[in-house]
Amino acid sequence: MNADRGTLERLGDVALAVVIGAIAVSVAAFDQDTTPVDQALIVAGSLALAAYRKAPRAVLAVTTAALSVHVLHAQPGPLAALPVVVAVHTAAQAGHRAVGAAAGAVFLGAYLAAGPVSQGGVERTALLAGWFLCAVVSGLAGRNWQAYLRQTEQRALEAERTREEAALRRAGEERLRIARELHDSLTHSISIVKLQAGVAVHLARKRGEEIPPALLAIQEAGGEAMRELRATLDVLRTDEPTGTPALLVERARAAGLAVDLTVTGRERPLDATVDRAAYRIVQEALTNAARHAGSAKVAVQLEYGEGELTICVDDDGTAEPSRPPAAGIGLTGMRERVTALGGSLQAAPRAEGGFSVRVGLPLEHA
């Protein structure tokens, strides 16, 4: 789908350049001073617009230079500025408003110098200045609108992710509630039945009586029910991550994120609670880096100390100390995990740019 969209965008850019060129060439054809060289300059400056998405400043330079030479040579009417106006608009939309304004000023200077200074010439130049001003303003408005659309889409994705996380959390809480109810009710009742059946079998054997088959069946069924119930409770209580931080790093690399993993100290098996918290912290930090840091590089470091596991996840993205991000569900959940284990958490933009997450988890916790 992305490939189809890119193809459509390129075809649209070529169509725009062809239409602008056709208009400019058609207008110039009625001017007796237009030569084949002028036609070539108009075509070159117009067709360059097809590449404005990839190189807006280069397109602006080519179009402005070609059309400035044309107006100096042929002294055409104001419509000759159309390709330059479009190039200034696209440059401003790409964020190069100063360059666009400078290119407009260069073309206006060439247009004003092309003929003798007269009231009509000054008025046409002022009209073109208004066109260029509108091109810069509309380019900035288009850029702001695109930024707004991207921000809206990002908020929608964040809201969807938050809803999914809340649903998963509620599902986990419900599983734990069901597990507690089953444990408190069924486990107690089945244990009593199994115990009573065992006592009856023991007394019958002690008195030398024949043990009723129904009693043996009750005892066997009670034991089997207890085993099945324990297995069910284990499933309900289990919300364990499957994998390691190294596997998370491999998955992130496969998804296109540039991640390096460094492990220092004596690596060893961890307590299940600490291991689960470390997994979730690295997972959340990599998820945030993939969502907010763009094409940044990420460094994951695990340091196994004598009494503490230190986790550092740093990226060189666009986060700045002057604009700290709002704590979302991910960072809040990360802090709750660390606090529950008596650890420490620092999550903030780095002074040199990017975001840093530093966590210390005690290996011996209450």
Question: What is the H/E string?
Answer: HHHHHHHHEHEEHEE
The helicity comes to 55-70%
Supply the helix-strand structural class. Answer: alpha+beta
Put simply, the count of helices is 10
Radius of gyration: 36 Å
Low-confidence stretches: none
Q: What oligomeric arrangement do these chains adopt?
A: single chain
**Widest beta sheet: strand line-up:** 1-2-3-5-4
- Sheet with most strands: 5 strands, mixed
The fraction of residues assigned to DSSP E strands is 5-15%
Q: What's the number of extended β-strand segments?
A: 5
State the end-to-end distance: 52 Å
Dominant shape:
elongated
Average pLDDT, rounded to a whole number, is: 80
Q: Any overview of this molecule?
A:
The chain is of the alpha+beta class and 366 residues long. The chain has helices at residues 2-29, 36-47, 56-74, 82-93, 97-114, 119-206, 213-237, 245-254, 272-292, 329-340; strands spanning 258-265, 297-304, 308-315, 344-349, 355-362. The protein has a five-stranded mixed β-sheet, with helices on one face. Helix 2 (36-47) packs antiparallel against helix 3, helix 6 (119-206) runs antiparallel to helix 7 (213-237) and helix 9 packs antiparallel against helix 10.
Tell me the layout of helices and strands.
Layout: H1 2-29, H2 36-47, H3 56-74, H4 82-93, H5 97-114, H6 119-206, H7 213-237, H8 245-254, E1 258-265, H9 272-292, E2 297-304, E3 308-315, H10 329-340, E4 344-349, E5 355-362
Parallel strand pairs: 1-2
Antiparallel strand pairs: 2-3, 3-5, 4-5
Helix pairs in contact: 1-2, 2-3, 3-4, 3-5, 4-5, 4-6, 5-6, 6-7, 8-9, 9-10
